[in-house]
Specification:
Blueprint (H helix, E strand, L loop, with lengths): L6 H7 L1 E2 L8 E2 L10 E5 L4 E4 H10 L8 E4 L12 E4 L20 H10 L4
Antiparallel strand pairs: 1-2, 3-4, 5-6
Bound molecules: zinc ion.
Length: 121
């Protein structure tokens, strides 16, 4: 049985990467709402949303509890991290977070958490 390649690598292979202002469409499988997903953990068939993973890989942390990863472009298939921000469901249209100078601190704890989320067995 072939070994699973790192999640990050498998993720970017499925991204139609373009300019920073364009949408990067997910070319892998999508759910019924149009959101891309990828297998995070083979042993448990655990799926992670592609746009959520993209955000986590950029910010090196998991979203705060109760927060959603939202699109500024209203394109559920888009995984361009510059089109994604952490917000409440109701504030879907605010893109302030994207330009917040107080970006999250990248400490070892959160990085470990992301890696745990992205872990492959
Ligand atoms: Zn987009």
């Amino acid at each position: 049985m072939p070994k699973f390649r790192p999640l990050q690598q498998r993720f970017w292979e499925k991204v139609d990467k373009k300019g920073i202002n364009e949408c990067w469409n997910w070319t892998g499988s999508v759910d019924k709402h149009g959101y891309g997903h990828i297998m995070a953990r083979k042993s448990t068939n655990e799926l992670v949303k592609a746009h959520r993973l993209s955000w986590m890989l950029k910010n090196l942390r998991v979203p705060e509890k109760g927060k959603w990863i939202c699109h500024t472009c209203d394109n559920p298939r888009c995984v361009n991290p510059y089109h994604l921000y952490e917000g409440n469901r109701k504030t879907n249209n605010e893109d302030r977070v994207l330009h917040d100078p107080n970006s999250p601190r990248r400490n070892a704890k959160v990085i470990n958490e992301v890696l745990r989320c992205a872990k492959i067995e």
